[in-house]
Amino acid sequence: MSRQIWFLRCLLGLLVAVIIVFLITHNRVSRWTCGSSCRSQTSETVEPRGLAESRIPVTMVVVTCGDRFEVTMANLKSAVAFSRAPLRLLLFADAENIQRLDDTIKDWPANVLERVTYELRLVRPPKGPDMIKE
Question: Which residues cross the membrane (predicted)?
Fold first, then answer.
C-alpha cells in the first residue's frame, strides 16, 4: 500500500513539473504569436548548431522515483539529442536513483556536457500519519 502512495506522489510531482514547464514555455512562445502587430520585432528563426550557446537555455524538470530510472534516462537522452538550445536539467530523485543519475550524466560525451547543466535534488517521502507501514 505504501508503494502505491509513493508512486502516486511521484506521479503528482511529475505532473506539477510538466505543468510548470508548459507554463514557462507557453509564455515564451506567446511573444512570437502576436499577429500583424509584431512586424517590427524579429521573428524566430532556426539557428545553425554552432549558435546554440547564444540561446536561452531550456529548463526541463524531471522527477524519478522507484524503478523509473531507465524511463527517465530515455527521456533525458531524447531531450539532449533533439534539442538545439542549451539545456538546464532540474532532476528530482529518490535516494536509490540520485547517485545513478549523477554517474550516468557524468559519463556523457564532452560535447554534450558543454551545453547541458543539471542540478540534482533529493526527494524524501513525507513522514506522518498518512504513511502506512507494511
Answer: 6-24
Beta bridge partners, 88, equal 59, 117
- The answer to whether 29 and 62 are in contact (CB under 8 A) is no
* pLDDT above 60 (res 83): yes
Residue 131 cell numbers, joined: 504513511
Angle at 31 between CA 25 and CA 33, to 5 degrees: 100
58 has which bridge partners? Answer: 87
Contacts of 38 (CB under 8 A, 6+ apart): 32
Overall pTM surpassing 0.85 (yes/no): no
Whole-angstrom distance, CA of residue 85 vs CA of residue 10: 28
Number of CB atoms found within 10 A of residue 77's CB:
13
Burial class (CB in 10 A: 0-12, 13-18, 19+), 18: middle
Average pLDDT over residues 29-56: 50
* pLDDT confidence band for 53 (50 / 70 / 90): low
